[in-house]
């Protein structure tokens, strides 16, 4: 064993320290690379060569020892000049250590690098791959921006009403009446925040001032001495809603005007028309066969025209009366109005040898007289537009979502699909008067009644095979139709 001071001690010590450093070098988690600078003829450093690396180098860079050892930096990393040549040369030439953090593009990694000088213009880099830490930090800082990037106002307010945080949108969108100089100033909001602290339950409030309206969520965070406040500017939505309301009112008003007009026109026209009709009929009775044949024909046309006009005016009056009687909605079984309609049609039913059947029908909340009128119009059409076979009519109902959908099915002449919509328009008919009598008001009345109930009416048909008329009635309690103050 070598004694200290004895010859050979220095060698043993050197060996020991070499081993020590070697062991440190081998076992460090940081990557270590020893380099020498490469100079050009003018003595300027132009590159550097790796002369040794520790095992951690491979782990920290992904470059194997075989490739790295002895390699010239610029060719190893594929960049010229070699990475950080200036900084490394500075350390090697001045002996001043240097530490920095950097993103190293050739390896797409982030490193924390310490550079120390070595004898003979060499230098060592001791480095750690900090990529995952940097990426996490990036993620965290991106997340930290989350509330500030929120286009809606976000605030955090302490239980003493101090503003702990407000994002840009809060400053931009919340007006001065809400908070000023980092304090809530809206009395309303202050009271609501105080309630949230007191009751420990989140609240949503709508706050309006002048021309702005906000929905404000005050979120209670149990155990914390602050609340989070999230705002939404609903001024635009409110304006749109009020605009829509105005338009609806306007539409209702102009509809009411139109109905009033139709009602007054048809009602007031009845009287002079009655006079015209009765006088041309009188003319016909008194002078038929007493004047020349052309006069007879003219009088006949006048009587026919007046009669038709009277029918149309009566129909128009019926149409405009729908919903004007102020009939109350009530709860009844739909078989009641159906039976009433069948009773009213009993003669036609008997004459046409029709077979009419129906399934059990549900209770509905509706206008009973009006629903009876719908059944009557649909069944009378089914009787009228029959084919070669005697009419076979079936009435049923089924539930579809929130509605009851009634069906009146016949085996009649059917309807071409191109006319499905047209037949519901007032006075629109598909046949001449001499083929099938009628004025074309029945389905228009049905449509008005069903719409009044918040439902829909439509038809499905196969020409020559039959038609099924459907109408829906919401199975909820609809709002009462407005009481009418119009004269009948
Ligand atoms: P009208 O019966 O007076 O003609 P409607 O308004 O009740 O008036 O009907 C309009 C048109 O729809 C009818 O002229 C007819 O062409 C067609 N239509 C209605 N119901 C039926 C049906 N059940 N089968 C075939 N066509 C029908």
How do the strands and helices of this protein lay out in sequence?
Blueprint: H1 9-27, E1 31-39, E2 45-53, H2 55-61, H3 65-68, H4 73-77, H5 85-94, E3 98-104, E4 109-118, E5 122-129, H6 131-144, H7 146-149, E6 154-158, E7 163-166, H8 168-173, E8 179-180, E9 183-184, H9 187-199, E10 203-209, E11 212-220, E12 226-233, H10 235-287, H11 293-321, E13 330-333, H12 335-344, H13 346-351, E14 355-358, E15 363-366, H14 368-384, E16 392-400, E17 403-409, H15 442-452, E18 457-462, E19 466-474
Parallel strand pairs: 14-16
Antiparallel strand pairs: 1-2, 1-5, 3-4, 4-5, 6-7, 6-12, 8-9, 10-11, 11-12, 13-15, 16-17, 17-19, 18-19
Helix pairs in contact: 10-11, 12-14, 14-15
Bound molecules: adenosine-5'-diphosphate.
Adenosine-5'-diphosphate binds at residues 377, 381-382, 385, 410, 412-413, 415, 423, 429-431, 438-444, 467.
